[in-house]
Specification:
Structural class: alpha+beta
Distance between the termini: 22 Å
Largest sheet: 7 strands, mixed
Oligomer: single chain
Number of helices: 12
CATH architecture of the largest domain: 3-Layer(aba) Sandwich
Number of domains: 2
Shape: globular
Number of strands: 9
Order of helices and strands: HEHEHEHHEEEHHHHHEHEEH
CATH class of the largest domain: Alpha Beta
Strand content: 15-25%
Radius of gyration: 20 Å
CATH topology of the largest domain: D-Maltodextrin-Binding Protein, domain 2
């Protein structure tokens, strides 16, 4: 019934647009498939997820019962805030047949927040550094080796500022790598080892740590131009598309550090005031299919 009622409709998918490979996947594979199988027109709208949450919060406050967002790509703090402020449609996973393919453990919690069926787990990625093997002959295998490399190669490493999702994750990566389990579990912990590590490498970073790339896209640009030897991000295969398109150096390689590396499950959800919730559900179910 949901599929039939969604036919000939338009679905607007609001999502982070900073990865050309993911964008191409949505535009070149998912969009034609939805059109062919369900006669649904998918429109991808690139936007930072935090901005989506702010938009939905403002619409809820204004009593706007019909918004413009049908599907949102979401996880972590953004989901926590959306759940807390009741910005999501409801227990969508109950009606999605393809949830049978989703790992129950990955689905149950989003960065420590119970999902309660409000979002569907779409994929899982690992925090990965990417480097140019033409310049970096002995890549660091752990955080201590990374610190040594940064000091020995001043100006050749940096990370996005912490307001950026990837930059924030890098700091947490360090935190998980250098702090004890007891410290990580202590809500009053001051994380002295984390700040000591970051402050120690700061003078040796790009621009001497006086400024940071504002986004992962800016760090990618620095890496592509050869200004730094590393970029990073959630997705161990992220660089393949960039190498293929000629943006990243041909000898770009991934490396997962032995300590602290964070895995992240990302999810799909439907806002409380989605104009086309049925189309949204069909779209999410399609994205969860084995073929997709």
């Amino acid at each position: 019934t949901i599929e039939k009622e969604a036919e000939k409709s338009t679905v607007r998918m609001y999502m982070w647009g900073g990865d050309d490979g993911i964008n191409a996947y949505i535009d070149e594979y998912v969009t034609p498939r939805l059109k062919k199988e369900h006669n649904i027109t998918l429109e991808r709208v690139p936007i930072e997820t935090a901005d989506i949450i702010q938009k939905l919060r403002a619409e809820k406050k204004a009593g706007k019962e019909k918004g413009v967002i049908d599907v949102v790509w979401i996880n972590g703090d953004n989901f926590l805030n959306a759940k807390k402020d009741e910005l999501l449609y409801g227990e969508i996973t109950k009606v999605l047949p393809n949830m049978k393919y989703v790992d129950a453990a990955a689905q149950s919690s989003d960065s420590g927040t119970k999902t309660d069926g409000l979002e569907a787990a779409w994929g899982k990625v690992q925090y990965t550094l990417h480097y140019d093997a033409a310049d970096v002959k002995s890549p660091p295998k752990d955080l201590q080796a990374l610190k040594s490399w940064v000091k020995e190669n001043p100006g050749r490493f940096t990370y996005p500022e912490v307001t950026d999702f990837t930059g924030n994750a890098f700091v947490r990566h360090v935190m998980y790598g250098v702090e004890s389990n007891a410290t990580l579990k202590d809500p009053k912990a001051d994380f002295k080892k984390t700040w000591a590590y970051l402050n120690e490498i700061k003078p040796y970073l790009w621009k001497k740590g006086k400024t940071y790339p504002k986004t992962l896209a800016q760090l990618d640009q620095l890496y592509a131009k050869g200004d730094v030897d590393f970029t990073m991000g959630f997705n161990e295969r992220r660089a393949e598309q960039e190498v293929k398109s000629g943006t990243f150096p041909k000898q770009t390689r991934p490396i997962v550090l032995k300590d602290g590396s964070i895995a992240s499950t990302h999810f799909l959800s439907v806002p409380f005031n989605a104009p086309n919730p049925r189309g949204a559900l069909v779209t999410i179910n399609t994205l969860l299919s084995p073929e997709a």
